[in-house]
């Protein structure tokens, strides 16, 4: 089991700097050292320098709609309670009692006005404020100061389109500034109806012996693997043609701060019914599109974003999937977190959502389609889960480490489309590994930072 230890100045800090230098040199040469995929020191540095300083997705507002609602989540290795207080505000609380550190919340979700520690009975409001303890007058000369002894609270909690993010550092840009021009893509994906989206079920969770960055990097821009890794999906009634055509249909959207998305020309790939991700005309007619600009309208019709990553570990997927043999494919929306557990091990959390206005039967079909492809036993998820173990296994290999093996990141150079009218950069192909490179360069910025992450730009 992983044990946390601060990366202080000394041999370990020097080692982390050396690895970062090798990563930068490797990226410049189209190569990637294996250490970041399985290394105790690198993992400890990530927990300090990325997950305590960066905006991390935690929950969707439809999971805690009422006062007193809460869910348990994580920021890096820290267990947190995401609760809605009596004032309607969302709080993110460290789930460790201030008395002896015992978790005060043992349920994944629920509704309560108080959290009571099962060890000595200290009690906290659902906003984290200390309320009291048993035998107060006998046990203490004076009451513990509620301002000092409440549960630790994340200093920054913000949401966009119902997606709640938290940050453990105060001196950081706002969530909207952190998303930057990727917020433009959020609007095009999630802002299509004033009622927003709703979570269809609690998140599914399962553990992979893979590094958290393998999933995040894959969703940031890797469509190259689809024709090989997911070829078997063709025989399982996936919509449209051979997945090996994916490379010709994929386009890249690269934004600052390590955020990126893939879009697919679905109507060209699967047929004209797959404009707007394949939503039926009677449902897409209810979309409220007046706030979108011409470029957003063009992409959701012709190159709808199908996959993407918000650095560090939040990813998105919307794709048409089968529900029953012979029936038209149904678009589903999946969001996921690549949760670090220990070096080379992650827990994958994923939620399925649909637009709140959608009829119940449509939401049911959407959930089935998502489960069929990307549930715990989904056709496509099963492919990826085993394949992502490769980088961590290589990084654990004494032979590979001794040989200083580096992975190949040398696809041909691709230039962005000069006629693009939207924010960020648009590419006519996802070959080139430019989005994966941007993800790693953002990782480098945070890993080298001695202060709060300010989100350097990488186009």
TrEMBL record:
Pfam families: Rieske (PF00355), Ring_hydroxyl_A (PF00848). GO terms for molecular function: 2 iron, 2 sulfur cluster binding; dioxygenase activity; iron ion binding. This is Rieske 2Fe-2S domain-containing protein. Keywords: 2Fe-2S, Dioxygenase, Iron, Iron-sulfur, Metal-binding, NAD, Oxidoreductase. The lineage of its organism: Bacteria, Pseudomonadati, Pseudomonadota, Alphaproteobacteria, Sphingomonadales. Residues 55-166 form the Rieske domain. Belongs to the bacterial ring-hydroxylating dioxygenase alpha subunit family. It comes from Rhizorhabdus wittichii. The keyword Disulfide bond does not apply. InterPro entries: ARHD_Rieske_2Fe_2S (IPR015881), Rieske_2Fe-2S (IPR017941), Rieske_2Fe-2S_sf (IPR036922), Ring_hydroxy_dOase_asu_C_dom (IPR015879), Rng_hydr_dOase-A (IPR001663). It comes from the Bacteria.
């Amino acid at each position: 089991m992983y044990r946390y230890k601060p990366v202080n100045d000394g041999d370990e800090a020097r080692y982390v700097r050396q690895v970062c230098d090798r990563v930068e040199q490797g990226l410049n040469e189209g190569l990637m050292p294996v250490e970041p995929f399985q290394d105790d020191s690198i993992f400890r540095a990530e927990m300090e320098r990325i997950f305590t300083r960066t905006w991390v997705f935690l929950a969707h507002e439809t999971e805690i709609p009422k006062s007193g609602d809460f869910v348990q989540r994580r920021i890096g290795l820290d267990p947190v309670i995401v609760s809605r207080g009596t004032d309607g505000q969302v709080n993110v609380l460290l789930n460790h009692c201030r008395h002896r550190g015992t978790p005060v919340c043992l349920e994944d979700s629920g509704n309560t006005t108080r959290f009571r520690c099962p060890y000595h009975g200290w009690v906290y409001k659902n906003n984290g404020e200390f309320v009291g303890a048993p035998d107060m007058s006998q046990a203490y000369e004076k009451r513990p100061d509620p301002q000092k002894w409440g549960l630790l609270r994340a200093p920054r909690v913000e949401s966009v389109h119902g997606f709640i993010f938290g940050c453990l550092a105060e001196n950081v840009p706002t969530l909207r500034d952190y998303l930057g021009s990727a917020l433009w893509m959020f609007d095009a994906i999630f802002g299509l109806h004033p009622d927003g989206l709703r979570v269809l079920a609690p998140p599914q969770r399962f553990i992979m012996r893979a590094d958290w960055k393998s999933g995040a990097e894959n969703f940031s821009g890797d469509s190259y693997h689809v024709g090989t890794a997911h070829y078997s999906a063709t025989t399982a009634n996936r919509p449209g043609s051979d997945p090996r055509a994916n490379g010709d249909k994929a386009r890249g959207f690269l934004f600052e701060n390590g955020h990126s998305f893939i879009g697919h020309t679905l109507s060209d790939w699967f047929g004209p019914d797959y404009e707007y991700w394949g939503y039926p005309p009677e449902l897409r007619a209810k979309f409220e599109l007046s706030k979108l600009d011409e470029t957003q309208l063009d992409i959701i019709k012709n190159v709808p974003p199908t996959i993407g990553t918000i650095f560090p570990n939040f990813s998105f997927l919307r794709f048409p999937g089968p529900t029953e043999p012979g029936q038209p494919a149904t678009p589903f929306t999946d969001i996921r977190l690549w949760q670090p557990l220990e070096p080379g091990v992650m827990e994958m959390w994923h939620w399925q959502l649909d637009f709140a206005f959608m009829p119940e039967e449509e939401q049911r079909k959407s959930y089935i389609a998502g489960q069929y492809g990307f549930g715990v036993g989904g056709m496509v998820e099963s492919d990826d889960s085993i394949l992502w173990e490769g980088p961590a296994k290589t990084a654990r290999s004494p032979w590979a480490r001794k040989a200083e093996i580096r992975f190949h990141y040398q696809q041909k150079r691709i230039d962005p489309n000069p006629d693009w009218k939207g924010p960020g950069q648009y590419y006519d192909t996802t070959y080139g590994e430019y989005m994966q490179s941007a993800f790693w360069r953002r990782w480098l910025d945070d890993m080298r930072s001695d202060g709060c992450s300010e989100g350097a730009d990488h186009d």
